[in-house]
Amino acid sequence: MLPVVDKPAIQYVVEEAVGAGLDDVLLITGRSKQSIENHFDRAYELEEALHAKEDWGKLEKVRQSSELSTMHYVRQGDPKGLGHAVLCAAQHVGHEPFAVLLGDDLIDPGDPLLKRMIEVREQFGGSVIALMEVDPDEVSLYGCAAIEATDADDVALITGLVEKPLKEEAPSNWAVIGRYVCDPDVFEVLRETPPGRGGEIQLTDALMTLAAKGEVRGVLFRGRRYDTGNKQEYLRTMVEFASKRDDLAPEFIPWLRTFLQQFPEQ
After folding, report:
1. Could you tell me if 120 and 219 are in contact, meaning their C-beta atoms sit under 8 angstroms apart?
2. Are 218 and 155 in contact, with CB atoms under 8 Å apart?
């Protein structure tokens, strides 16, 4: 629910899913997360007040979040890792392919990553993960993939995955970021996957099993990604998103230039 300009980060993620053609969204939540459910619900009292004031612009913005998609919610209960969170969705998803979008990873709306991943899934079947090239010194922060090139410049066959490897043990510097398009077979693998690092069930471990069968591909993402879970990245995200807004940029960018003149040595 961290705000990015004037919307919580989770709304950008839901908008990304909807923009890729997905109209049924399940949020896996936990204790004390009612604010997320409330955000995507109707705010009748506020809507009535804005309607009475004939403030149609604000009324449209208030209604936007509740009209994005069909929303569902499941509580994870114990925080047992991303793989466990995905398992919580099994009954809702059934036997259909599905996408997993992590709430603290934002993809720039101008870079249709998820749409491309769905295209790759439709072409090859199996599961598809998003990969982004990172500095070798940062590979220990991510799951990293061993890859083989394919005929498509932005698609690789995944031959192995390592969760947060040491720099010298990483199979590449292509890191797994928070977008997945999964075959429903992943549920059965997750049920048999023992807890890994930190006592958590890792989605990466289940995908490793499927990769060994040649059933996982990666989309090599060269666009813009924002990690709102990192303080520096969050601040940069705020500045970048505000600078791209037609209603904010004309005043914000000149102010920012003037403000930065106070720090000529940095």
Report:
1. yes
2. yes
**Nearest to residue 191, comparing CAs of 123, 66, 74, 89?**
89
E strand intervals along the chain: 3-4, 7-8, 24-29, 70-75, 98-101, 105-107, 127-133, 143-149, 155-163, 174-182, 216-220, 225-227
* Distances in whole angstroms, Cα of residue 231 to Cα of each of 23, 43, 108, 227, 256: 31, 31, 18, 9, 19
DSSP state at residue 20: T
User: Using an 8 Å Cβ cutoff, are 155 and 120 in contact?
Assistant: yes
List the chain residues with pLDDT less than 50. none
Neighbours of 255 (CB within 10 A): 9
pLDDT in tens, 93-145: 999 999 999 988 899 888 999 999 999 999 999 999 999 999 888 888 888 88
Give kind and range of the element (H or E) at residue 243. Answer: helix 231-243
* pLDDT confidence of residue 70: 81
State the burial class of residue 192 (Cβ atoms within 10 Å of its Cβ: 0-12, 13-18, 19+).
exposed
Query: What is residue 264's predicted lDDT score, i.e. its pLDDT?
Result: 76
Q: Which residues contact 182 (CB under 8 A, 6 or more apart)?
A: 86, 97, 98, 99, 100, 127
Q: The pTM is what?
A: 0.84
pLDDT of residue 45: 66
Of 64, 83, 86, give the one whose Cα is nearest residue 74.
86
> In whole angstroms, what is the distance from residue 171 CA to residue 160 CA?
8
Q: Phi and psi for 171 in degrees, rounded to 5? A: -70, -20
